[in-house]
Structures are given as C-alpha cells and as structure tokens.
C-alpha cells in the first residue's frame, strides 16, 4: 500500500528491483502519487504474473489515457484520485476553518494538523 507524498526520495521508489523483491502474487495499491511507481515496470510485473494485481488511483499522466494498457488488465482496478471530493465538501471545509480559527483564538489544539516532520524521515530502498 503506497500512500506517500511525492518527494525526491520517493520518486521512482518502486521499480523493477522492488517488484522482483515482492512475494510472487502480491498486490500493489497506490493512492499516493503516480511518479512513486515506475509504471512500465509495474505493467511488466503484472503482465508477467510476478504481481497478482494492482489497485491504482494515481498515475504519471492523469487522467489515465484511454488507450493505456492498465485499462485492459483483469488484475488491475483503476479508480479516480478524488477521495476528498464529496457532496458538501466546501461547507465542511468552511466549518472546519471557522472551528479551527475559534480554537486558535482560545489557545486550544487545532483539528487536522499535518505533522510536516513525518515527511522528512529518511526513505529506504529495497537493496
């Protein structure tokens, strides 16, 4: 399961060596960023039977071109990268902003704070 941000360290993190190191039949799910995965290497691993399948909602080019081979693979699920989109999101975002502003005024902890330090941790590669 890949849910990492795209950084210099994560770009191309999953390529031929990483797919070869995975257990045969394993499945890859990428909901992070498309450029983290070498799509040509993923396609090769899927069509060669090294991977059992993939669930993808991010790609190098979005939307995924209609003629891309991922569309025709029975072991690939393609979904739109829009998990935060729901009816009423603008109102919910506005309400969260107002709530956090009032919390800030009262010196209370804010909601949904992103810990930016966690993204600075070193990222290892499979040897």
CATH topology: Rossmann fold
Assign the CATH class: Alpha Beta
Secondary-structure-based class equals: alpha/beta
User: Considering DSSP H and I runs of 4 or more, what fraction of the residues is helical?
Assistant: 25-40%
Shape: elongated
CATH superfamily: NAD(P)-binding Rossmann-like Domain
The largest sheet, given as strand count, sense and whether it forms a barrel, is: 3 strands, parallel
Give the spatial strand order of the biggest sheet.
1-2-3
CATH architecture: 3-Layer(aba) Sandwich
SSE string, helices as H and strands as E: HEHEEH
- Percent range for β-strand residues: 5-15%
| Computed CA radius of gyration, to the nearest angstrom | 19 Å
Low-confidence stretches: 119-127
Question: N- to C-terminal separation?
Answer: 19 Å
Number of DSSP strands?
3
Average of per-residue pLDDT values: 88
């Amino acid at each position: 399961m890949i849910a990492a941000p795209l950084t210099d360290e994560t770009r191309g993190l999953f390529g031929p060596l990483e797919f070869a190191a995975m257990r045969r039949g394993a499945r890859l799910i990428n909901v992070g960023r498309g450029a983290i995965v070498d799509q040509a290497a993923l396609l090769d691993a899927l069509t060669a039977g090294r991977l059992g399948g993939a669930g993808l909602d991010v790609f190098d080019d979005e939307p995924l071109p209609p003629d891309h081979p991922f569309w025709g693979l029975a072991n690939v699920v393609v979904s739109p990268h829009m998990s935060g989109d729901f009816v009423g999101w603008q109102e919910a975002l506005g309400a969260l902003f107002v709530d956090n502003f009032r919390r800030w005024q009262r010196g209370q902890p804010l909601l949904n704070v992103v810990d930016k330090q966690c993204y600075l941790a070193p990222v290892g590669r499979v040897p």
